[in-house]
Amino acid sequence: MEYTKEQKMAMSKVLLDIVSVDEHIDARETMYFESIKQELQLTTQDHFDILHLNTLKCLSIIKAMTIEQKTGFATMMRKMIIADEYIDPNEAASFYDICEFIHINGIGLTIK
């Protein structure tokens, strides 16, 4: 899937926010995020820049993406949440709130 740099940064920010909701970042979540950074071709500097982005602005950027792009992002969120093989209720609530905000559905949270 093709994304602009702005979209990649926005998605990464939201992924980091979701994984931080339960105030515990598991090593498997970190490894998954590192794989996402590689897939999106983000640098270490990008990672530091992501930390200073505004989440609401990032969500607005994601909301403006195509359905295919949003579906890809929702799949990334799902994989990030289940990376530690546990679905935290706060992470799940964030997931469903974000999906509703960006107008994407059909991606559920189950550990498979």
Write the layout of secondary structure elements.
Blueprint: H1 5-20, H2 27-39, H3 44-50, H4 55-63, H5 67-82, H6 89-102
Helix pairs in contact: 1-2, 1-3, 1-4, 1-5, 2-5, 5-6
Structural account:
The protein has six helices and no strands. The chain is mostly helical and 112 residues long. The longest helix is centred in the N-terminal third of the chain and has 16 residues, at 5-20. The model has no long low-confidence stretch (mean pLDDT 90).
SS strand fraction: under 5%
Principal-axis shape equals globular
Question: Distance between the terminal alpha carbons, to the nearest Å?
Answer: 23 Å
- Helix content class: 55-70%
What is the gist of this entry?
Helix content is 67%, strand content 0%.
Keywords:
6 helices; mainly alpha; 112 residues
